[in-house]
């Protein structure tokens, strides 16, 4: 293997390790409060939550900062999930999960999720400034 | 080459027993930690669908509030808390910081990350509730 190819592989590895760590941190810091409030307290009517009413939900979703936040919240953890689930399969004896096609499916799936999230955020509610 | 010699050259592949992760508490907790990814991914997919549904218009939009959804969220919350606890506990081992050429104690880094978790939860919770008014 040439030095250039090794260098490129190490670079790709570095990027995916960074995304794995970043996804783990974002999932750890941000997801529990969303699940608690939007998934439990809101549906049980203990608190009024922004996504309970169409008007408030659409108003918030039009904010560009909220769109950026939701992109980070939803898309980035999938790079972490892809890595964990692939290695979980390896640990359960699915050796095919180590293969290059499996890597393409898992990490490619995370990339696809990023594009799907961008598409949903940009096409659902128009960006409103101010 | 004799049959015995051929057999000796054959590759020996050791297979882990299927229940290896139930034999030891640490293995079990390790698998639970890795598995947290699946329920969290499913919940984020739900959130993305909820965002997409906002595009359906005011007459067709109705937020989820079925018992099944709440039960699902409670289960996801348990996995989410376990992910947060295990991941943030590791930060003291992973992150190496130096301030004025002196290393920051790992316990302090872990404590700062748990503090960031609490701070982020309060801010996000406040925003989710405040903008509902």
Q: How would you summarize what this structure contains?
A:
The complex is a heterodimer of chains A (130) and B (133). With 130 residues, chain A is mostly helical. Chain A contains five helices and no strands.
Give a count of the beta strands of chain A, DSSP E runs of length 2 or more: 0
Helix content of chain B: 55-70%
What would CATH call the class of chain A? Mainly Alpha
Name the poorly predicted regions of chain B: none
The whole-number mean of residue pLDDT values of chain A reads 93
What Rg of chain B, in angstroms, do the CA atoms define?
A: 24 Å
Q: In CATH, what is the class of chain B?
A: Mainly Alpha
Query: Termini distance of chain B?
Result: 84 Å
The CATH architecture of chain A can be given as Up-down Bundle
Large-scale geometry of chain A = elongated
Structural class based on helices, strands and sheet pairing of chain B: mainly alpha
Sketch the major β-sheet of chain A.
Answer: none
The CATH homologous superfamily of chain B is termed: Fumarate reductase/succinate dehydrogenase, transmembrane subunit
Share of β-strand residues of chain A: under 5%
How many domains in all of chain A? 1
How many strands in all of chain B? 2
Oligomer: heterodimer
Structural class of chain A: mainly alpha
**Topology order of chain B in helix (H) and strand (E) letters:** HHHHEEH
Identify the CATH architecture of chain B: Up-down Bundle
Instruction: Tell me the name of the CATH homologous superfamily of chain A.
Output: Fumarate reductase/succinate dehydrogenase, transmembrane subunit
């Amino acid at each position: 293997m040439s030095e250039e190819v090794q260098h490129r592989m190490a670079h790709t590895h570095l990027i995916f390790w960074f995304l794995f760590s970043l996804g783990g941190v974002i999932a750890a810091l941000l997801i529990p409060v969303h699940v608690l409030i939007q998934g439990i307290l809101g549906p049980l009517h203990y608190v009024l939550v922004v996504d309970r009413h169409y008007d408030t939900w659409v108003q918030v979703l039009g904010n560009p900062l909220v769109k950026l936040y939701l992109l980070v919240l939803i898309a980035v953890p999938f790079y972490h999930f892809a890595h964990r689930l692939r290695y979980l399969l390896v640990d359960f004896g699915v050796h095919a999960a180590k293969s290059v096609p499996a890597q393409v499916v898992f990490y490619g799936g995370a990339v696809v999720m990023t594009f799907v999230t961008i598409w949903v955020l940009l096409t659902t509610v128009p960006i409103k400034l101010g | 080459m004799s049959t015995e010699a051929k057999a000796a050259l054959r590759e020996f592949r050791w297979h882990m027993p299927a229940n290896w992760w139930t034999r030891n508490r640490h293995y079990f907790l390790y698998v639970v930690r890795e598995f947290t990814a699946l329920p969290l991914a499913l919940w984020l997919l739900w959130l993305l669908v909820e965002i997409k549904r906002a595009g359906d218009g005011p007459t067709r939009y109705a937020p989820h509030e079925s018992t099944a959804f709440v039960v699902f969220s409670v289960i996801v919350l348990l996995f989410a808390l376990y992910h947060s606890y295990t991941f943030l506990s590791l930060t003291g081992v992973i992150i190496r910081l130096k301030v004025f050429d002196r290393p920051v104690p790992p316990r302090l880094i872990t404590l700062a990350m748990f503090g960031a978790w609490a701070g982020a939860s309060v801010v996000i919770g406040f925003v989710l509730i405040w903008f509902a008014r």
